[in-house]
Amino acid sequence: MKVLIVEDDESVRRFLSDVIAMEGYDIRTADNGSTGVQAYREFEPDLIVSDIEMPVMDGLAMLEKIRRFDTESIVVMITGHGSEEYAVKALRLGAHNYLKKPIHHTALVELLNKYRSVVANRTATGSLPGRTVRREFTMEFKNCLEDVDKVVDHLVHQASDRLSRRDRLGLHLGLLELLVNSMEHGNLEISYEEKSRAIEKGLLQELRDQRRANEALANRCVKVDFRSDQTGCEWIIADEGAGFDWKSVPDPLHPTNLTSHNGRGIVISRRHFDEFEYIGKGNIVRVKKRTNGGAS
Questions:
Q1: Residue 274 belongs to a domain with what CATH number?
Q2: Is the pTM of this model over 0.85?
Q3: In the predicted model, is pLDDT for residue 229 greater than 60?
């Protein structure tokens, strides 16, 4: 995976470069939005990690310029204290996620691992001859986070003949967020606050392992019902957790809530579907992606 780092602060740029290179990725760096656009054209990265506030050209202007000719690269913006409203604008301009300064090593590596699977799926998916008129199936799988990429790959592949390349990328990102939420917050009962603290301390994997040591939690499953027809593709994802009060989740795009992980996965996944709703006590979510034939 090729990663472009755009950051004017030399110490932050070096930190990002060191972490990303140590994970085995091909990197290129730029120190402002203008040189970032130039580096993008030359490097054609799969993932862009960019600061927002920079001289010459800021990250928002760079993102807006890149999105005019490329809608597929994954973009993660970096925001500092006091620039939360810029992060909201970045998401609306087409960024996929954001990191809050100071950047924690664990949070960065988590994002890299997540997007690596997305890029691998995108490059592997090919076009299929003909068209499936209708397809239905149900998947049930153990609460194994190590296998979630394979599950998402399969789900995206089953819908790939109905979706554009750009929509497949969004679908992969959206389903990944929902399945991880079902496993972590649902089946393993890891709260958003517990996950945030674990990420800050670099102990997220230890927290997961601790919960999976509880046999009652470890044996829980996630079920996915998939249906596709001429109107689009629908997924119903159910975990065996206690659910949550989804009606009370604060708007994660409100500037005062951007520093919290609470609800961020929901808003990130919601952006990639035409229909999105939680059912009952909140342990079931139904999402739909309409095709052109099903546009309302």
A1: 3.30.565.10
A2: no
A3: yes
